[in-house]
Amino acid sequence: MLRAIAVRAGLSRSGQLVAPSVCRAMSSTAGDSNSLVLTEEVGSKGVITLNRPKALNAINLEMVRLIYDAMKQWESTKSVVIVKSVGDKAFCAGGDVRAITETSNVELARKFFSTEYRLNALIGSYRPTYIAFIDGITMGGGVGLSVHGKYRIATERTMFAMPETAIGLFPDVGGGYFLPRLEGKLGLYLGLTGFRLKGRDVHKAGVATHYVESKNLAALEQQLLATTSGAEVESVLDRFSEKRDAGAEFVLAKQLQQINQCFSAPTVEAIFQQLERDGSEWAQNTLKLLHKMSPTSMVVTQKQLELGGKMNLKTCLKMEYRLAVHHAIDSDFKEGVRALLIDRDQKPRWNPATLAEVDPARIEQFFGPLPDGDELQFEEEGPKASL
């Protein structure tokens, strides 16, 4: 999916006059169009813009650090922080996993995942009101930049997915925390299949908090930057957003009962059996989709979401850091990236190739301590913090 796309210079003000209170005071990076992350300070508000449109705004280690640094700098001085992106194709198509797998550098993987997960945790507990404009493709790392914040604004161009099982990984960036908290077993279904939700369905699923037509984002941003209280922010968002039940029926509405029944099974193998017993066209299509995924990744994901549903965000991210580093050391991750993103032959050679061959002891190792004991820690924790 990493292909060149047209760069949109910025959101138009639609000819509207900007009130003096929201005239933009540019920060040092706002005038540097080459920076991968642009930041602006608008009085007591901050705006962060992902600026890597040719890579669908996929985030690399440098971008994660820039976002984290800006957010920490504004943590005690801003009331609202808006996160958006350049271009109309993608908010953020994910993390730059090619850089990690092509070098086979476990240390690079450690640095990327630990920094990214600390950013996810910061978003989840951020004091300023955090608002993400998830306009366009929002997958993987882009989900982590948005779902833990207070407000997520979807548009008709939004395409949400957590497709990690297709590349031999698992739905990380706190996926183990937010997916189990969606309605019924919808989160597990999305995490195992990588099913893509689009437009209003992202709102109806509970992934987005609001739905706004993309043509209205500029006016929405302008009014958010002019707010003076949290209540006013809520009022502005409600005024611009459609009601959750507006428009066509949720794309998965007719399958929710089947999803809940089949994906409530205690193991991935049992989920397959339930789908086979169901026998409907939907169940058969779901089985075809699941057969393409890494068997190991699916088993890891099912356990991750089962555990994560009982954890707070930071504890879940610690668990996911263990999983991520173990995957960087030895898993289907590199092979999945090769097959889908590098060679693009769409023919990953999973090891093992079937669910029946997945070793439960190996699955437990993924969740176990890291070889050198170097666990994920957050700033406020002491050196002996552990999962």
TrEMBL record:
Q: Where in the cell is it found?
A: Mitochondrion
InterPro entries registered for this protein in UniProt: ClpP/crotonase-like_dom_sf, ECH_dom, HIBYL-CoA-H
Gene Ontology MF term list: 3-hydroxyisobutyryl-CoA hydrolase activity
Which pathway does the database say it acts in? Amino-acid degradation; L-valine degradation
> What enzyme category does the UniProt record give?
hydrolase
Provide this UniProt record's keywords sorted from A to Z. Answer: Branched-chain amino acid catabolism, Hydrolase, Mitochondrion
Known catalytic reactions? 3-hydroxy-2-methylpropanoyl-CoA + H2O = 3-hydroxy-2-methylpropanoate + CoA + H(+)
Spell out the GO cellular component terms annotated for this protein, sorted alphabetically and separated by semicolons: mitochondrion
Identify the residues that the record assigns to the Enoyl-CoA hydratase/isomerase domain, covering every copy: 46-367
What GO biological process terms does the UniProt entry carry, in alphabetical order? Answer: L-valine catabolic process
Look up the domain of life of the source: Eukaryota
**Record keyword Ion transport present:** no
Q: Which Pfam family is one of this chain's hits? A: ECH_2
Q: What is its EC number?
A: 3.1.2.4
* PANTHER family linked to this entry: 3-HYDROXYISOBUTYRYL-COA HYDROLASE, MITOCHONDRIAL, 3-HYDROXYISOBUTYRYL-COA HYDROLASE-RELATED
The entry assigns this protein to a family as follows: Belongs to the enoyl-CoA hydratase/isomerase family.
Function field:
Hydrolyzes 3-hydroxyisobutyryl-CoA (HIBYL-CoA), a saline catabolite. Has high activity toward isobutyryl-CoA. Could be an isobutyryl-CoA dehydrogenase that functions in valine catabolism. Also hydrolyzes 3-hydroxypropanoyl-CoA.
This chain belongs to the protein called: 3-hydroxyisobutyryl-CoA hydrolase, mitochondrial
